[in-house]
């Protein structure tokens, strides 16, 4: 109700401000988006500012691609810091490096586009429109490096607007309004939902749960949703969890919660951190409902593994595996290897030590794990628990990871400690069984050989 009241208030301000816009109406008709931006920054009145912000966003949404790209380019070229003010502030700081001078320098160095984005956010629906604008901006970054600074300003502001303190966790079930359920189907990014019946099988049974994080300014738009299977033990294969013919168990009989799909829904928020411990919040909610749950873990994809391995195999010598392992791993290029029992066992044993190396030794230039899913879960305080070869034998799973899936365990008593180890030292907290694989030859310890 509070959000609705505020939206109605901003709508009223916008409607009243239309009569005050004067020359801005002519700018809107001309489609000159950068000039509308200049006019918005020059406004002092709240009502006219809200109306102008709404007009600019509406004009942007209805403009052709070239005009929208022109506006994004203008954000880089025309709405950066005022160079004269920066020079004056620098000179003043050098003359007198006081706290006041530092504040003045910070204010002068802030790009004008940051204030423009703040004012655009005042329009009714402004937050959602800006998220869409950034999604379009991201689509141009590959060919337009001049827009990188604009993107950094969006991320800077969004990181404040979308931090975890503003997010609201809500359960999603079969009685949730259809407009939200339809978005769950559309946004599922890990394991596609094929139909409404498929969605029902993930929401309605007693051993299934789903939660979504919402933002007050995007009331009907889930930002992240988490699908959960309640089971009697750790799961290593996604097909078993998603089997529509399986027999559900009573929630009170479950001992384990498996987070098998975590999807970010807004492309315009890519790379914006919502803070850590999101999964812990879901786990705490589950434990309040079901005190019988003892284990909280994921069954996660490994989207970068196949590409990384192909790159290593293309090198004359890999620092991660020997020639014998290389010769064996070449068999992964043969279609259907996972169907033939003999080849499956040989390649499964070869993959495990290499996969352990991928998680524990292969790093980005900043010293973090290469795998983006690993970075997310380790940053949230999870422990790398188990590797499951052929955990996902779908076409997508075989293509991106040769079927490999991973269990990350969320030990609720260790989450904060694990997070600090990763954040401060870049440590990958992993089970002893996975760490032993690094020292293994081709054959891994038997407990790590998945039975899937």
> Which CATH architecture of the largest domain would you pick?
Up-down Bundle
Task: Determine the CATH superfamily of the largest domain.
Answer: Malonyl-CoA decarboxylase, oligemerization domain
Q: How many structurally independent domains? A: 3
CATH topology of the largest domain: Butyryl-CoA Dehydrogenase, subunit A, domain 3
What's the tally of helices?
A: 21
State the name of the first-level CATH class of the largest domain: Mainly Alpha
Q: Over the alpha carbons, how many angstroms does the gyration radius reach? A: 26 Å
The gross shape turns out to be globular
Amino- and carboxy-terminal Cα gap: 49 Å
- Overall pLDDT level: 89
Strand line-up across the major sheet? 1-2-3-4-5
What's the total count of β strands?
8
Helicity range = 40-55%
Determine the structural class based on helices, strands and strand pairing: alpha+beta
Unreliable stretches: 440-452
Largest sheet data = 5 strands, mixed
Q: Sketch the topology as an H/E string, one letter per element.
A: HHHHHHHHHHEHHEEHEHEEHHHHEHEHH
- Roughly what fraction of the amino acids lie in strands? 5-15%
């Amino acid at each position: 109700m509070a959000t609705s009241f505020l939206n109605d208030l901003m709508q009223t301000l916008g409607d009243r401000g239309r009569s005050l816009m004067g020359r801005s109406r002519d700018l809107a008709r001309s489609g000159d988006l950068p000039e509308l931006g200049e006019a918005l920054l020059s406004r002092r009145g709240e009502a006219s500012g809200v109306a102008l912000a709404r007009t600019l966003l509406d004009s942007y949404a209805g403009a052709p691609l070239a005009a929208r790209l022109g506006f994004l380019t203008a954000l880089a070229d025309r709405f950066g810091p005022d160079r004269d003010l920066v020079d004056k502030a620098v000179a003043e700081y050098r003359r007198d490096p006081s706290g006041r001078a530092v504040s003045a320098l910070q204010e002068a160095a802030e790009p004008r586009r940051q204030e423009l984005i703040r004012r655009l956010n005042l329009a009714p629906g402004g937050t959602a429109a800006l998220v869409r604008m950034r999604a379009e901006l991201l689509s141009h970054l590959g060919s337009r490096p001049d827009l990188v600074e604009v993107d950094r300003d969006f991320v800077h502001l969004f990181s404040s607007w979308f931090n975890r303190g503003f997010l609201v966790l809500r359960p999603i079930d079969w009685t949730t309004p259809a407009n939200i359920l339809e978005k769950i189907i559309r946004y599922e990014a890990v394991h596609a939902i094929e139909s409404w019946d498929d969605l029902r099988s993930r929401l309605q049974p007693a051993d299934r749960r789903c939660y979504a994080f919402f933002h007050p300014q995007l009331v009907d738009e889930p930002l992240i949703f988490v699908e959960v299977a309640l089971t009697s033990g750790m799961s290593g294969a996604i097909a078993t969890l998603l089997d529509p013919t399986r027999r559900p168990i009573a929630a009170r009989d479950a001992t384990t919660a498996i987070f098998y799909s975590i999807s970010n829904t807004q492309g315009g928020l890519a790379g914006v951190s919502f803070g850590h411990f999101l999964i812990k919040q879901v786990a705490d909610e589950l434990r309040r409902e079901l005190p019988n749950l003892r284990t909280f873990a994921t069954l996660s994809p490994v989207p970068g593994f196949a590409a990384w391995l192909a790159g290593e195999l293309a090198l004359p010598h890999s620092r991660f595996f020997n020639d014998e392992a290389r010769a064996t791993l070449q068999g992964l290029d043969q279609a259907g290897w996972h169907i033939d029992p003999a080849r499956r066992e040989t390649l499964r044993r070869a993959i495990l030590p290499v996969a352990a190396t991928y998680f524990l030794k292969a790093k980005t230039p900043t010293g973090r794990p290469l795998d983006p899913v690993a970075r997310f879960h380790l940053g949230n305080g999870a422990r790398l628990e188990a590797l499951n070869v052929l955990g996902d034998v779908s076409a997508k799973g075989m293509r991106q990871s040769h079927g490999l899936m991973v269990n990350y365990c969320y030990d609720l008593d260790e989450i904060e400690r694990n997070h600090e180890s990763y954040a401060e030292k870049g440590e990958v907290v992993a089970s002893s069984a996975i760490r032993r694989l690094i020292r293994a030859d081709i054959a891994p310890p038997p407990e790590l050989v998945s039975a899937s």
